[in-house]
Amino acid sequence: SQKIEQNSEALNIQEGKTATLTCNYTNYSPAYLQWYRQDPGRGPVFLLLIRENEKEKRKERLKVTFDTTLKQSLFHITASQPADSATYLCALRSEGDSWGKFQFGAGTQVVVTP
Amino acid sequence: GAVVSQHPSWVICKSGTSVKIECRSLDFQATTMFWYRQFPKQSLMLMATSNEGSKATYEQGVEKDKFLINHASLTLSTLTVTSAHPEDSSFYICSARDPGRTNEKLFFGSGTQLSVL
User: How far apart are the CA of A89 and the nearest CA of chain B, in angstroms?
Assistant: First the structure.
């Protein structure tokens, strides 16, 4: 069965360091991969989209890589700040699925301490 | 940016009653909306795809008679949890795509925490 795995353990990191999160998938051929931020009791907020033919995407302090051979995406937050503390979700869509129909991972919580 | 409003943000109800949750796109017309449920520290589970003017498409294992979805206008989709029971207690979230955008960015509502007593 299709599976999306994100590290369930919280990532504790010191302010200013780089946080790196992983998203691994099995039995999936995603054409699109997204990363979202979710704060407690709130809906997710879109951060980045990367396509299967793209290796890397950047947006301000965020960087996403997509390795279809390893079946893995890495999400980096550079120069992390306490305000970056949240849960980060990856989401995948296969080419055959309808537009917007993404499957989500359970997320990894990031805690940035001053 | 595009905004999706979800209401109510939380609701407590007695077992056996029905609860309606609204999802509105405020500044764009959403031909498609998605409904999810989320348990603590778990992923968003897609329940159904709501299409304006047609029947919703439910994911496998989701009871369509239990979770009624209506998408009567381009800016409003509703999810009604019928005859709610304690096991229906969960965080329900909607999302919408803006057809005016070429990317696949989903805009999410703020979620509804449902507690069934």
Answer: 8
Please tell me which of the candidates A32, A93, A106 has its beta carbon nearest to residue B42: A106
Which chain B residues are within 8 Å of A104, Cβ to Cβ? 36, 43-44, 46
For the stretch B43-77, pLDDT in tens is 899 999 998 888 899 999 999 999 999 998 889 99
The closest alpha carbon to B67, from B88, B44, B52, B86, belongs to: B88
Rounded Cα–Cα distance for residues A39 and A17 (Å) = 21
A105 touches chain B (CB under 8 A): yes
Rounded Cα distance between A52 and A73, Å, is: 10
Closest CA to A91 of A66, A58, A111: A66
Q: How far apart are CA A79 and CA B69, in angstroms?
A: 43
The Cα-based distances of B114 to B13, B66, B94 in angstroms read 8, 15, 14
A46 touches chain B (CB under 8 A): yes
Which runs of consecutive H residues, i.e. helices, occur in chain A? none
Decide if pLDDT at A107 tops 80: yes
- Statement: residue B31 has pLDDT above 90: no
Q: What local confidence, expressed as pLDDT, does residue A96 receive?
A: 84
- State how far residue A15 is from chain B, nearest Cα, in angstroms: 24
Dihedral angle at the C-alpha atoms of B43, A60, A77, A70, nearest 10 degrees?
70
Report CB contact under 8 Å: B103, A103.
Answer: no
